[in-house]
Design a protein that fits this description.
By secondary structure, the chain is an alpha/beta fold. Helices cover about 35% and strands about 20% of the residues. It has one domain: Alpha/Beta hydrolase fold, catalytic domain (Rossmann fold). Helix 2 packs across helix 9.
Length: about 300
C-alpha cells in the first residue's frame, strides 16, 4: 500500500530538507556583513520566529521594510536558505528585511501558513517605530511556496483594507494548485520539480481537494486582481511553474496592476539559490534594485 502524502511529506522533511535548502557557495554573498536579531510574533495560528536583517547605515532615519517568505514546497521550514537574499537586499536596497519562519505542512496545513504570513506582515506594519523601521514603507516577497504566500498576503490585505505594500515579489511561484502537475511542462527532460513531488507538496499543504481552487491557495485562478500591489514577477524558462507565473503576470497587468515581468532563460526552478550563479546574481540584483525604487517612492 502506498504511503500517504502526510507520511511522504514528513520523510522529505527529515531526509531531504537540508538538501532542498542548500545554496550554491558562490551565491552566499559572504562578503556582505549582516546585522541580525530574532523576534517572535504572535499570530492567529501560533507564534512565529522571524530573523531581522538590518542595513548597515540608515542615516538616522527609519528604514523601510521588506518581509520575505522562503520556499520549500510548503513542507520544508528552513528560512536560512534565504539568508543570502535577505543579506543582499538589506545591504543593497537599504531596508530592514524580516525573514519569516512560518509553519509548514503536514504539521500545520492550509490555512495556518497564510494566517501566520498575513499576521506577521500586519504586525510589521503596526509596530514599526518600536522596532526602528518604517512600517508604512513596506514590501513583501517570496520564493516558490513563499511567493504563493506573498500573493495570499497581498490579496488578504486588499480585501480587508488593512495595508498596501509598495511592491510584491513573486519568484517562481506555484499559482495553480488545482491543475494536475503532469500537465505542467518543461522544455528539458528532467527539471528540478517532478509531478510526484509536486503532488506530495500539494496534498500535504491542502489535504482537502475542495480548497485547492481557493484564491489564497491558487492565486492564478482568481479573476479579481484589480487593486493588488505593484509586482515584480520572476519566472524561469525550464521551470514547470513558468507558465502559471507568466500567466499571472499577464493577468495582473490586464487588471491594471503595475507589473515588471522577467523570464530568465536557460534556468530552472530555484536558480536564485542553486545557480547558474550569473543568472542567480542577476535575479537577486533585480529584486534589490526594484525594491529600492519602490520603497523610496
Amino acid at each position: 500500500m502506498p504511503f500517504s502524502p502526510r507520511i511522504q511529506a514528513r520523510a522529505i522533511q527529515l531526509l531531504f530538507g537540508g538538501v532542498m535548502a542548500r545554496v550554491h557557495k558562490d551565491l552566499r554573498f559572504t562578503d556582505i556583513p549582516k546585522r541580525v536579531e530574532a523576534i517572535r510574533v504572535e499570530t492567529g495560528a501560533g507564534p512565529v520566529t522571524c530573523t531581522v536583517y538590518r542595513p548597515s547605515d540608515t542615516a538616522g532615519a527609519l528604514a523601510p521594510v521588506y518581509v520575505n517568505f522562503h520556499g520549500g514546497g510548503f513542507i520544508v521550514g528552513r528560512p536560512e536558505q534565504d539568508d543570502h537574499i535577505c543579506r543582499y537586499i538589506a545591504a543593497r536596497a537599504g531596508c530592514v528585511v524580516i525573514n519569516v519562519d512560518y509553519a509548514v505542512a503536514p504539521q500545520q496545513p492550509f490555512p495556518a501558513p497564510v494566517t501566520q504570513a498575513y499576521d506577521v506582515v500586519a504586525w510589521v506594519v503596526a509596530s514599526g517605530p518600536a522596532n526602528n523601521w518604517d512600517g508604512s514603507r513596506l514590501a513583501v516577497g517570496g520564493h516558490s511556496a513563499g511567493a504563493n504566500l506573498t500573493a495570499a498576503v497581498c490579496r488578504t490585505a486588499r480585501d480587508r483594507g488593512t495595508f498596501s505594500p509598495l511592491l510584491q515579489i513573486i519568484d517562481s511561484a506555484p499559482l495553480n494548485q488545482l491543475a494536475d502537475p503532469a500537465t505542467k511542462h518543461s522544455p528539458i527532460a528532467k527539471p528540478l520539480l517532478n509531478p510526484h513531488l509536486m503532488r506530495v507538496f500539494t496534498a500535504a499543504y491542502v489535504p482537502d481537494p475542495a480548497d485547492r481552487a481557493d484564491p489564497l491557495v491558487s492565486p492564478g485562478l482568481a479573476d479579481d486582481l484589480a487593486g493588488l500591489p505593484p509586482a515584480l514577477v520572476i519566472t524561469a524558462e525550464h521551470d514547470r511553474l513558468r507558465d502559471e507565473g507568466d500567466a499571472y503576470a499577464k493577468a495582473l497587468d490586464a487588471a491594471g496592476v503595475d507589473v515588471t515581468h522577467r523570464v530568465f532563460e536557460g534556468v530552472d526552478h530555484y536558480f536564485t539559490h542553486t545557480g547558474p550563479v550569473s543568472a542567480g546574481k542577476e535575479a537577486i540584483e533585480l529584486m534589490a534594485t526594484t525594491l529600492r525604487t519602490a520603497l523610496s517612492a
